[in-house]
Specification:
Elements lengths: L17 H16 L3 H26 L1 H4 L11 H12 L2 H11 L6 H25 L6 H7 L5 H21 L3 H10 L5 H10 L7 H34 L11 H27 L8 H32 L2 H11 L4 H17 L9 H27 L20 H24 L5 H10 L1 H5 L3
Helix pairs in contact: 2-17, 4-6, 4-12, 4-16, 5-6, 5-11, 5-12, 6-8, 6-17, 8-11, 9-10, 11-12, 12-13, 12-16, 13-15, 14-15, 15-16
Length: about 450
């Protein structure tokens, strides 16, 4: 192990010994050594859902007018774009849980960073898949890239999505290199192809002081770079709506509104993820009650910020109640969508802003239940942004069949959406089965640099 990690601060702490490091390494590498029966069943189930989604997409592309009957001139986006916005929001978890905490020197982030980065990479990939599913002619994606006009907000979105994806992949891979070397040297009972993969991807890592210096400098640069990229990807996504002629989206608040909601969703996703990983892989020593307590407090902060931008988003048009704004808001507040809308507000804003204020609610199980409610409400919140907004065009809907004024996703659409979530879970699951989901060297380093914060937690 590198001398950059094993250090002694005799004035305050005991030496972090080689024995302690070996115990930690064994704990964190254990999930890679063997996939149990339950794990194989889980992976098989996710693969089946993904295959169902591929088949549903095939049906859609060959018989689209028969299977997506509610996607018409007015509601031309549907659940696919709701899903796209959701996954773009979820991808900001890497910015919040890894980049921001890393740069602000909150040492408790260390066991969470790789989990957040894997979720971010998977989410942005599935955001792209959702866009392809929404395209009536996916072959035109090539022409969008080769002949797109920079004046179009869609091109802005493609640019930031691709840039953010590449940066996130690099930010995931660079800190992984020492762990790959650790896997190669420590895990001997794996298939030869897997050991060769670790050897190839570790690029001859030896843990020399020069290599550590380059790695840490590179990670810091990427960490700084990914923050504006992450914020810009969701801001540009908001601009796609705000520059479209619909009353609900005619807002200069939309960028901040989207970003604040994404940060809240990211905290909820992290709580769910670490609860599952610590139970499935027996990582209670590393994903502790302290992490849930910290994330619960972060959830309150993000919930209050998101509540502020929601008030901004709805209060001003509700005060004026002019024209189409009035029709749309009355539909949400007291009309056909009222029960749905207020349920989303309660579970997606009120619950995360108030419940985790109580310490008992910041324990792993209750906080995870809250996070699941926020996660589900977060998806439906994006649905409420997209669908009712499309249903309120500036030109009144008239002289069309009544079915054109309502949108109900078909079974084909729901199957494709479900397959994107299965694919997301499959990416995270497979990554955790072949690579350490918690960074060995970062946690070891954190035990030295962050002991006072971590071990004094009550």
């Amino acid at each position: 192990m590198s001398k950059d990690i094993i250090k002694t601060d005799s004035t305050q702490y005991e030496t972090f010994t080689q024995e302690e490091y070996m115990v930690m390494k064994n704990d964190l590498l254990r999930p890679i050594e063997k996939i149990g029966k339950a794990g194989k069943i889980w992976i098989g189930f996710l693969l089946l859902v993904c295959l169902a989604g591929v088949y549903a997409y095939y049906i859609q592309e060959t018989k689209s007018k028969y299977v997506t009957v509610s996607l018409r001139d007015y509601t031309m986006w549907g659940v696919y774009i709701s899903n796209f916005v959701f996954f773009v929001a979820l991808s900001l978890v890497g910015v919040l849980m890894s980049a921001v905490l890393k740069l602000t020197h909150f040492e408790w982030y260390r066991p969470l960073s790789r989990i957040a980065e894997v979720i971010a990479v998977g989410a942005i990939m599935l955001a792209g898949v959702s866009i392809v599913a929404a395209m009536g002619r996916p072959d035109r994606l090539y022409f969008l890239v080769t002949h797109g006009r920079i004046q179009s907000p869609i091109i802005w979105d493609i640019i930031v999505i691709m840039t953010y994806l590449v940066t996130s992949l690099i930010l995931l891979f660079i800190p992984l290199i020492p762990s790959l070397s650790t896997c190669k040297n420590h895990l001997k009972n794996l298939p030869k192809w897997q050991l060769k993969m670790y050897s190839f991807l570790s690029f001859g890592w030896e843990g020399s002081p020069e290599q550590w210096k380059i790695l840490k400098k590179t990670v810091r640069v990427l960490t700084i770079l990914v923050i504006p990229l992450g914020i810009s990807i969701h801001t540009v996504t908001a601009w796609l709506f705000a520059t479209t002629l619909r009353s609900e989206w005619d807002s200069t608040n939309f960028g901040a509104y989207f970003v604040s909601g994404a940060f809240l969703l990211g905290v909820a996703a992290m709580i769910i993820a670490i609860f599952i990983f610590r139970k499935a892989y027996k990582l209670e020593k590393y994903l502790t009650d302290m992490h849930f307590d910290k994330l619960g407090k972060a959830m309150v902060l993000m919930g209050l910020i998101y509540a502020y931008f929601n008030i901004n988003e709805y209060l001003v048009p509700a005060y004026k109640m002019s024209g189409l704004h009035a029709n749309h808001l009355l539909n949400l507040f007291v009309g056909e969508e009222a029960l749905f809308y207020w349920s989303v507000v309660f579970f997606g804003i009120v619950v995360p802003s108030i419940f985790p204020l109580f310490k008992a609610m910041r324990k792993p199980l209750p906080l995870t239940i809250i996070a699941i409610a926020v996660f589900i409400a977060g998806w439906w919140k994006r649905y409420l942004i997209v669908i009712p907004g499309l249903s309120s065009p500036y030109l009144p809907i008239q002289d069309v069949p009544a079915s054109w004024t309502h949108y109900s996703p078909s079974l084909i659409e729901w199957t494709i959406v479900a397959s994107t979530f299965a694919a997301m879970l499959l990416i995270v699951t497979l990554f955790s089965r072949y690579f350490p989901i918690i960074s060995v060297w970062e946690v070891a380093e954190g035990k030295l640099e962050g002991k006072e914060e971590i071990f004094n937690y009550k």
